[in-house]
Write a structure and sequence with these properties.
Layout: E1 3-8, E2 14-21, E3 24-29, E4 32-41, E5 47-53, H1 56-69, E6 74-79, H2 83-91, E7 95-106, H3 109-112, E8 123-126, H4 133-149, E9 175-180, E10 183-191, E11 198-204, H5 213-227, E12 232-238, H6 242-249, E13 254-264
Parallel strand pairs: 11-12
Antiparallel strand pairs: 1-2, 2-3, 3-4, 4-5, 6-13, 7-12, 7-13, 8-9, 9-10, 10-11
Protein name: GCN5 family acetyltransferase
Keywords: Transferase
Organism: Streptomyces natalensis ATCC 27448
Length: about 260
Amino acid sequence: MNFVHSTSGTGNNAVAVTRVSDMQWHAMEDDRTVARGDASRRPDGRLFVSIDAWHSAVFDRMANAMLADLPTPLYTVVDEADTDSRSAWERVGFAAARREWGYVVPTDPQVTGLGSVRPPSGVTIVPAGDADEGPLRALDRIIRDEVEAAVGWQTMPAEVLPRPAGTTVIDPSKYAVARHLDQYVGLVRVAPLTRQPRIGLIAVRADRHRRGIARSLLAHALGSLYGSGAAAAWAEVDESNAAATALFEGIGARRAAGTLELVRR
């Protein structure tokens, strides 16, 4: 695919924006690449775009070329502190849709106060790597369907990874689960990254909310990280999720970043 959009350049030369593949664009000026644009479809079906450009004029031309080629709605993500990036996307018609807070989460049970937390009666925590894959995948699908029917999965912080169509559990070894009798009722996913482990998801079936299961899963996950030598973990929470915000801030998590999701409809 080779659609070319010619525009005036940053100096005296024209900038040619070329769609080099279904999801990639290049902006060339005088045989130099002056911007790159990418689009990617996330597992929830939404189309996200990104642009790497040094000059605002080139950014605008790249954005307009991509917008002419792609269907709406389109989404992008910016660091809340990066006002230049936010302004650039707003210039081409994007507007803030949601905000996500990033937290540094201590793992020391003396700091979190989770050292004495035990699962509710009848509930046991199955450590990461020990969960049965079939029931784990079934639980993940139930939780995703419940979230989609309520607030929508797009409000959940997502660890976006390449995955086969329809697959949501990529690496079962990253999941610890809460089991009540013979049923899996909650899960927590931890990516053991070298620099700082990431709590990618913590969720409980809707019919088991408000029983302390999520808190028990978090206590288990953080305790395991502490035992392996990690002093802190990272987690993202949608600002509208009051329960998750209260859970993390209640154990001493520190808000360290904000991310804005922008949309053009």
